[in-house]
Specification:
Elements: E1 13-18, H1 24-33, E2 38-43, H2 55-73, E3 77-80, H3 83-96, E4 101-102, H4 108-114, E5 119-124, H5 126-130, H6 132-141, E6 146-151, H7 154-163, H8 170-177, E7 191-194, H9 203-209, E8 215-217, H10 220-231, E9 243-245, H11 253-261, E10 268-269
Parallel strand pairs: 1-2, 1-3, 2-9, 3-4, 5-6, 5-7, 7-8, 9-10
This protein binds D-glutamic acid.
Residues 18-20, 22, 48-51, 82-84, 125, 128, 156, 196-198 line the site of D-glutamic acid (DGL).
Length: 283
């Protein structure tokens, strides 16, 4: 590893996973520091969105979908580019895979360290907001910081629509983040943690529609560095990068638009239904 955290020589196959297309923001960060890697992408479109699902439903789903995807894609490392999933079921996913698994941690620590005012916003899905894991991060790294939390399913929907090339109104984005700034100390917030991998897709619009200048920070670069660290040198992977989804049809125009934009071709549908008790059935 170089001092800067740039690993241009790293090789291997990475599978970046999210409920939808938010994880492409992480895939981009990984490609930026590991240009020789093959960075495949998988979206659990058949169970999207995760943010409003019950903990039990997600705990049941995640190990099953992770195993089915890894069975098909054969990566060297599995990256859960989803705060909602990582803050709940990282251990459960690790338990069923025999490759390194990298999770996503909301960037609460760097936000608390760099805020000048000591007031930060936490923008995430409702699931991530209510997690014990998130509360523990706050206690450990931001005990002296005032944190306003906002869970939004609407922003996830807007990010998917925006990335799919649909018209998304500034007013809708402004209204979705407005509650962060409406409290008595709202004007003191100088840093907002984008604790959902979908939200960096809307970063410019969020910045444009905030009531005052705010720094938005996310975990993308840190996840990329960790991925390269655990990957070490796995030997050169070959072939074009691939995308996988868990719903039909594989050529749904919105998903295709985003995937094409980020350099992926038609995604391969993967089924999470299992034949017998062991191997996943591939659609
Ligand atoms: N991108 C996911 C995250 O980082 C969540 C989106 C969803 O609600 O499915 O939390």
């Amino acid at each position: 590893m170089s001092e800067s955290g740039f690993f241009p020589a790293a090789t291997g196959r990475v599978l970046v996973f999210d409920s939808g297309i938010g994880g492409v923001t992480v895939a981009q960060e990984i490609t930026a520091i590991g240009p020789k890697l093959i960075v495949d992408y998988a979206a659990d479109t058949g169970f999207f969105p995760y943010g409003d699902k019950s903990d039990d439903a997600l705990r049941g789903r995640l190990p099953v979908v992770a195993r089915a995807l890894v069975h098909v894609a054969r990566p060297d490392v599995f990256v859960i580019a989803c705060n909602t999933a990582s803050t709940l079921a990282l251990a459960e996913v690790r338990a069923v895979l025999d490759i390194p698994v990298v999770g996503t941690v909301p960037a609460i620590k760097p936000a608390a360290e760099t805020s000048q005012t000591g007031h930060i916003g936490l923008l995430a899905t409702p699931g991530t907001i209510r997690r014990d894991y998130t509360q523990r991060l706050i206690e450990e790294f931001a005990a002296d910081t005032e944190i306003v939390k906002l869970g939004s399913v609407e922003l996830v929907r807007l990010a998917e629509a925006f990335a799919a090339g649909e018209e998304v109104s500034r007013d809708a984005v402004a209204a979705a983040q407005a509650p962060l700034f409406e409290g008595p100390d709202g004007a003191k917030i100088d840093t907002v943690v984008l604790a959902c991998t979908h939200f960096p897709l809307l970063r410019e619009m969020l910045a444009d529609t905030a009531p005052h200048p705010v720094r938005y920070i996310d975990s993308g670069e840190a996840i990329a560095r960790q991925t390269l660290r655990v990957l070490e040198d796995r030997g050169a992977a070959t072939g074009p990068k691939a995308a996988y989804i868990t719903s039909e049809p594989a050529d749904e125009p919105g998903t295709m638009h985003v995937l094409n934009r980020f350099g992926y071709r038609r995604p391969v549908p993967v089924s999470t239904r299992r034949k017998g008790t062991t191997s996943p059935e591939v659609a």
